[in-house]
């Protein structure tokens, strides 16, 4: 990868007190929250908004119809599937809940979630379980914090209707063994819904290889797309047969006074109205990633995060909080705490030095954080455009706090 081009393509890196001074530039370590988009993404969005203001949204969208049609194709290419398996959405949670609320659940049914499940997913499972008389049960983790496959195998029976798997959590670098877990769950007849929000754009995500039933992801994190974008992947057989819980005149066609027909593919999970500019921006972000070469990007993220993890781990008083340990691979999120200073204070004091990190709180991943007695951790998530000099500047700043 051409690092100089990558950085030149990322205008947000230049924002700082003195853009020509490497010691004052913007060290951006929040691609797990909302990344810096490549310039082409921002320009695509703005150009379309301008065009809407000139000719109205309908004509503006018609002028870009081929590009809009191509967005699902670009995402499909990234995931190793067909465009008909992709429904575009406005967030990962929208995509996740669109699928989840469409899975029939009755009294006595069981839903399994992981210890690192995301709050929005967990809340939805609790709401539906309450209404349906079903139960939500947590799959245990092993001693290193990875999803415990043997425990999952013991929990599975014919009453388990859905298994919710998280590939990478919001609060750390653990990478769950989701392919193996999906194989077990599917063999027992359960549907598998994979939250790949922190995986898409960060590590390889081949849905055919993973063999899951559905995948949700967002645009604004590692994919570097605009906010308010996301997508749902559905196994093609499901995309052609599953009835979404809510329909409109895009997901279905009104064919007679008593009849309607569902869209033939995953588009049945989309609504007609959407932010066209944001969707074009998402397409530009995914094409940018495909052009760079996803494998090279994944390798660059893995390299930067292991460098960072090692450097932070060597600092006195700093504890790296990532689960997974020696047993599993670790991804691009590095979570840590420092003795005697609250995560929020670390974030704020680093911001004064033009270094962006975020704080991940217990309320986002309640089961895991409660179990580990953590109220919050600092989250540093370097994308491929971050330089090693910037990582070292960040580590020195943490040491100096
Ligand atoms: C951010 C995140 C989500 C939610 O994504 P939205 O686009 O905000 O809905 C879901 N799961 C994980 C693991 C996340 O990190």
TrEMBL record:
Domain (Aminotransferase class V) ranges: 27-394
Record's keyword terms, sorted: Aminotransferase, Lyase, Pyridoxal phosphate, Transferase
Cofactors (names): pyridoxal 5'-phosphate
Similarity remark: Belongs to the class-V pyridoxal-phosphate-dependent aminotransferase family. EgtE subfamily.
UniProt protein name: Probable hercynylcysteine sulfoxide lyase
Disordered: region residues: 1-26
Reactions mediated catalytically: S-(hercyn-2-yl)-L-cysteine S-oxide + AH2 + H(+) = ergothioneine + pyruvate + A + NH4(+)
GO molecular function: transaminase activity
Gene3D superfamilies assigned to the protein according to its UniProt record, in alphabetical order: Aspartate Aminotransferase, domain 1 (3.90.1150.10), Type I PLP-dependent aspartate aminotransferase-like (Major domain) (3.40.640.10)
Class in the EC hierarchy, top level: lyase
Role according to the record: Probably catalyzes the conversion of hercynylcysteine sulfoxide to ergothioneine.
Pathway: Amino-acid biosynthesis; ergothioneine biosynthesis
Listed EC numbers: 4.4.-.-
Positions of modified residues (N6-(pyridoxal phosphate)lysine): 221
UniProt-listed InterPro entries: Aminotrans_V_dom, Aminotrans_V_PyrdxlP_BS, EgtE, PyrdxlP-dep_Trfase, PyrdxlP-dep_Trfase_major, PyrdxlP-dep_Trfase_small
């Amino acid at each position: 990868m051409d690092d100089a081009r990558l950085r030149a393509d990322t205008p947000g890196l230049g924002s700082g007190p003195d853009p020509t001074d490497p010691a004052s530039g913007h060290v951006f370590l929040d691609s797990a929250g909302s990344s810096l988009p490549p310039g082409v993404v921002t320009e695509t969005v703005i150009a379309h908004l301008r065009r809407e203001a000139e000719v109205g949204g309908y004509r503006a969208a018609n002028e870009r119809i081929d590009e809009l049609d191509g967005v699902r194709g670009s995402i499909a290419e990234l995931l190793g599937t067909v465009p008909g398996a992709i429904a575009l959405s406005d967030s990962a949670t929208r995509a996740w809940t669109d699928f989840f609320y469409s899975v029939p659940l009755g009294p006595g049914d069981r839903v399994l979630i992981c210890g690192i499940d995301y709050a929005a997913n967990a809340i939805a499972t609790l709401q539906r379980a309450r209404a349906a008389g079903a139960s939500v049960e947590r799959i245990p983790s092993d001693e290193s914090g990875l999803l415990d496959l043997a425990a999952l195998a013991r929990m599975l029976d014919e009453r388990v209707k859905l298994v919710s798997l998280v590939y990478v959590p919001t609060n750390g670098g653990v990478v769950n063994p989701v392919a193996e877990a999906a194989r077990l769950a599917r063999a027992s007849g359960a549907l598998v819904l994979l939250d790949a929000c922190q995986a898409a754009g960060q590590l390889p995500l081949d849905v055919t290889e993973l063999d899951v039933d559905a995948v949700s992801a967002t645009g604004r994190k590692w994919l570097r797309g605009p906010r308010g974008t996301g997508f749902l992947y559905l196994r093609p057989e499901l995309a052609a047969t599953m009835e979404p819980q809510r329909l409109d005149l895009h997901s279905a066609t009104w064919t007679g006074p008593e009849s309607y027909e569902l869209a033939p593919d995953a588009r049945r999970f989309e609504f007609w109205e959407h932010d066209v500019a944001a969707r074009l921006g998402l397409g530009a972000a995914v094409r940018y990633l495909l052009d760079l070469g996803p494998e090279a990007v994944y390798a660059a993220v893995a390299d930067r995060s292991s460098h960072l993890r090692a450097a932070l781990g060597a600092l006195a008083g700093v504890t790296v909080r990532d689960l997974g340990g020696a047993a599993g691979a670790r991804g691009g999120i590095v979570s840590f705490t420092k003795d005697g200073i609250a995560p929020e204070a670390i974030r704020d004091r680093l911001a004064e030095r033009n270094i962006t990190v975020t704080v991940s709180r217990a309320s986002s991943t309640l089961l895991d954080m409660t179990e580990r007695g953590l109220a919050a951790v600092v989250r540093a998530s370097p994308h491929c455009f971050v330089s090693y000099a910037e990582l070292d500047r960040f580590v020195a700043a943490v040491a100096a706090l």
